[in-house]
Design brief:
Blueprint (H helix, E strand, L loop, with lengths): L1 H19 L7 H15 L4 H12 L10 H22 L7
Helix pairs in contact: 1-2, 1-4, 3-4
Length: about 100
């Protein structure tokens, strides 16, 4: 559970920043997409849920969204955080850093 709480703590601020960058009237599709990810982030129960969240985030580029430069930077930052967490999860515990 510590892993899930850590992932939530790391992902929540950049995800909320991404969501706040969209206007419901002009950006309903990306707003709905990232709001669903936020909902799923709050519902994490196990490592499988976390990996599913990473899979959802990895599909961002294939959604067809058009981001303004600020939104693109925020999304890139969010994806970088997710990538760092996923990398840490995949690192072998056998080899100390």
């Amino acid at each position: 559970m510590e892993l899930l709480n850590s992932a939530r703590a790391q992902l929540l601020p950049p995800l909320e920043a991404v969501i706040e960058s969209f206007d419901a009237a002009t950006d309903p599709a990306p707003l709905a997409f990232f709001t669903l990810i936020l909902t799923n982030l709050h519902r994490l129960e196990d490592d499988g849920d976390l990996m599913g969240l990473f899979f959802e985030l990895s599909s961002t580029a294939f959604q067809g969204f058009v981001f303004n430069p600020t939104q693109a930077q925020l999304v890139d930052s969010l994806l970088a955080v997710a990538e760092n967490i996923a990398f840490a999860l995949s690192a072998s515990g056998d080899n100390p850093h």
